[in-house]
Specification:
It is built from seven helices and eight strands; from the N terminus they run αββαβααββαβαββα. It is of the alpha+beta class. A hairpin with a 6-residue loop joins β1 and β2.
């Protein structure tokens, strides 16, 4: 009897481990993803029906179907041929991975510091366009992300916050030019540096 119980317990553990691994396999499709719409040939943001994908995966099948798309509800009756792109390479279609890869090894357009590696708990970097307007990357609609990244420069979170504050509250900001004219090589206001120079010359 004890042996049978051990065998049953082992089978339950094996079954649970198998189901867990299959669910993890389905989780490759978690999150918002970008595909190229076969109809328009343009980017569209989609989400996979994870519940159905997980159930199918546990039974040994792989079922990838969409639960949402930026082209819906107008084209909700499409044949979802785009899912082939996700099945081939889910990792490189995930919005988070696309943005992370783009910011990798890049420096801020303002301060020149390296953009910090991506983590979900990090403050998110942004981009600056030709009009010098900064935007956090995850505030950009996913379907517009590829085009936006191709036409902008990276900005660290600190510079984005500063630029956004200056842009939205110009009446609260005083911009003073600075020069490296201090006695120890430190930065001092240009006007102050000039007055010191005039005073020294007068003496």
């Amino acid at each position: 009897m004890a042996t049978e119980m051990y065998v049953l317990f082992a089978l339950v553990l094996i079954g649970a481990a198998y189901a867990f691994m299959r669910i993890l396999f389905a989780m490759r499709y978690y999150g918002e993803m970008i595909i190229t719409c076969p109809e328009t040939k343009k980017p569209a943001a989609v989400k996979v029906n994870l519940a159905r994908a997980a159930v199918a995966s546990v039974t040994g099948r792989m079922l990838v179907e969409l639960s949402d798309c930026t082209r819906w509800p107008e084209r909700a009756d499409c044949d979802q041929k785009c899912v082939v792109q996700l099945e081939r390479d889910p990792k490189n279609h995930r919005v988070w991975n696309i943005a992370s890869h783009w910011f990798e090894n890049k420096n801020c357009a303002y301060c020149g510091k390296a953009i910090e590696p991506f983590h979900h708990y990090n403050r998110k970097p942004g981009v600056v366009d030709a009009q010098k307007i900064t935007t956090e990357w995850d505030e950009i609609p996913a379907e517009q992300l590829p085009e936006k990244l191709a036409s902008t420069r990276p900005v660290c979170w600190s510079c984005h916050v500063t630029e956004k504050f200056v842009r939205e509250h110009p009446d609260l900001v005083v911009v003073r030019p600075w020069k490296k004219d201090g006695p120890l090589g430190e930065y001092v206001p240009e006007q102050h540096a000039g007055s010191e120079g005039q005073h020294a010359h007068h003496n």
